[in-house]
Design goal:
By secondary structure, the protein is mainly beta. The N and C termini lie far apart (40 Å). It is globular. Strands 2, 4, 5, 6, 9, 10 and 11 form a 7-stranded mixed β-sheet that branches. It contains no helices and 11 strands.
Amino acid sequence: QVQLVESGGGLVQPGGSLRLSCAASKTLFDMYAVYWYRQAPGKERELVAWSSSRAGPHYADFAEGRFTISRDNVKNTVDLHMKNLRSEDTAVYYCNYLNNWGQGTQVTVFS
């Protein structure tokens, strides 16, 4: 089992940026994908982005061009850099690796 800890959430105005980070307690093997999900109040959890050595980075349509996922297999971290944030990006963001979940980090975009 792998423990995952997300950080970097906060309050930001529309158009702003945030960098989320997910730290893993064990090695993140390249061959396995790491995922970022989010869940807004009253909505189902949805996939935001994922990355693996085989498939590279992939993004949900709403994230394409605004979000960038990057992983550091030495530090065992996976970051999600988000720019041009919108109010609809407000959610709790979670990382997932081999069916392990972190506790999430809150992102609130407000004007």
